[in-house]
Design a protein that fits this description.
mainly alpha
Amino acid sequence: MAAGYGNPQQYGGNFNVQAGGSGGQVYNPAAPTPAAPVAAAPAPVAAAPAPVAAAPAANPGFQGAQSTGGGKGGAGSPPATSPTPAPAAPMAPNINQSAAAGIQSSMAGAAREMNYQPMNVAAGGYGATTGNAQGYGAAQSGATGFQGASVGSQGYDSSRTGSQGYDASRTGSQGFNAADTRSQGFNAARTGSQGFNAERLGGSPTVTSRDVTAGQLSNTDLSRYTNPYESQVVQSTLGDLDRARQLSMGQAGAQASAAGAFGGSRQALMEAETNRSFADQAARSAGQLRQAGFNQAQGMAQQDIQGRMQAGLANQQAGLQAGTTTANLAQQRNMANQAAGMRANEFGASAANQAALSNQQALNQASQFGASAANQAAAQASQQQQAANQFGASAANQAAMANMAAANQASQFGAGASNQASLANMAAANQASQFGASAANQAAAQAAQNQQAASMFGASAANQAALANTAATNQASQFGAGAANQQMIANQAALNQAGQFNSQQDMQAQLANQQAGLSGSSQRLGAAGQLGSLSNLGFGMGQTVNQNLSQQGIMQQAMQQQLIDAAKAQFAGYTGAPYQSIGLLSQALGASAIPQSSNTQKQLGAMDYLSLGAGFMGMGG
């Protein structure tokens, strides 16, 4: 016949064992009363250490068995001595209150840094220096002209004679070929323009950046970030669990001694179960604490890696800014040198071209004067040849005319002689007058030509001198204005460069101050976050301690329930023994069976106890 009990929640009743005459024991269940550790479980913050100190009073309804007479055999047993209570542990700091204070401090620090206003950076400008170009008034030269010499022609009055008619013999006239004259030209002197090679800049300066290597968590030694008191915390937690285990085992031994079963298999089973639960809880608590320490060290190492990365990026940016500024300054210097070289080469080429043009103009003027003189001489020789040919032709015609006159004179008497004389006189007079006029015209033309050439040469020389003086004056003025403009441009560039450099330096200083303020704010936010993380870790440790105490209460409750079940089973065996004996006798005698009651017992497992503990915790919450 299986013995058991019906309601597993009646573990808080009074169990009084009194010796009877027949050795029977009476079990008087009282009203169900919740155990003290379970009722005190929902308030871990205010009285966290209380369950350990109050562990022996977990079941006030269970009293040790008092045997005054004896058991089944009636023999008496000495009274059981109660175990000496363990001294109370010193009060440790309340980790929940410390965690709450840390979170409040972290929230206050984060709120302060949320209102942080970074320094505004104002762009520093500079007024560019302007320069006025210095010009020059170009010198002007007036052209010197000349009055061309005028030549008056000298004519002659031809002699008139009366003609005596006759049948004139005809004769052919003898002409003459006009003498040709050729003009002599000149080849204009050519001059080549002199250019200049543009100044080339050297290779543009390069800017190199500093490489930034990202930190790896796998290469980081996490031992520098772990909590140096982690082992003390783990050992303290394990010590609390071991103290609870010893108290539970002491209480179980006291209960077994009170029940008269000290050293039995039931006590060994309870102690083994208590040790197993202690080992599981100790391993779980140590693993959780060490996992939390590892996570915290990993987070702090990642923050340091991120900080080093940000510092490397900031250094890289600063190096790039410095290299860029240096390269810009070097490029500006090269461009200024290039501009100066271009201006020098341009001035030299301009001077060479002006000299070549002056030389070309002088050669052209000399060639033109020589060609003009040659043309004048050729024209004069042509005129003289023309006059000689004309005179020869005229003489031949006169001779023909004389011969014709002689023939006509022979043919015509009287008229021939008179006409011949008249014609001879007229011819002589005309010839003399014509020759004299021709000689006078030739002399006047030659004098006019000579005067014209002399006037032209003087005017040309005066114009060339005026042009040369004007060019020299303009060149000197241009050179002075160019030098003044170059000096003004150089001063303007130096002032602008200094203003730009000062503006850049001021901007970099403001950016550095702003970055320093932001970095300080970020570090303060990081410190507040670390404080919050440590506070959350403290809360987690407090919750872990509360859970350990709650599980310890559940284990104590389960062990007490097992004792109650064992006592009830033993009591059921005692009370059912007479009925069983009578039943056996009645069966042996063939009598009818005597009605008797039976109890059904359920062996509760670990899940049942855990569900029961969770229900009590929910009721307490």
